[in-house]
Amino acid sequence: MELEQLRYPIGHFTPQETYTPAEVKTNIQIISALPSKFINLLGGWEDDRFNTPYRPDGWTVRQLIHHVADSHINAYTRCRLAMTEDNPTIKPYDEAAWAELPDAKAAQVELSLQLIRYVHLRWVLLLNSMNETDLARTYYHPASGQISRLDTIIANYAWHSEHHYQHAYQLAARNNWQ
Questions:
Q1: Which residues belong to any copy of the DinB-like domain (predicted)?
Q2: What is the CATH code for 28-174?
């Protein structure tokens, strides 16, 4: 399998100009399903498997799961900021540096699986409460220089959820760990 396919198993995220209510609902369902998908996939793994990189020169599965927890906590917070402020400027963070912190390299995966589970419960409650006006609310990301609508953010994190799930799933499939 070539490196690009290992890096982007479902392709790159491509935002749409607009999202229908049905598309938003589907994207929220994808976000909602992620915790149980990860728990079902990873629940029977021995701890040493989590130290396996999902691709050459990539993060270990341990770092990957901790990254998803970090990323989705930030996404939830950013959604709340966009819901309560007019086009707030969000705080970027260095994902690669966070993945190298001691807790991301050594902490038990179960800690982040539980964080993902509970953050997603709250996040999905918020997402499901949004109406058309809420979905059009925005925030500004200073690192990218982009203003993003919440419906696009929801689509991006649905993609992000499946993107990283596939990293772990395809590693498990390649190694017959299922």
A1: 35-167
A2: 1.20.120.450
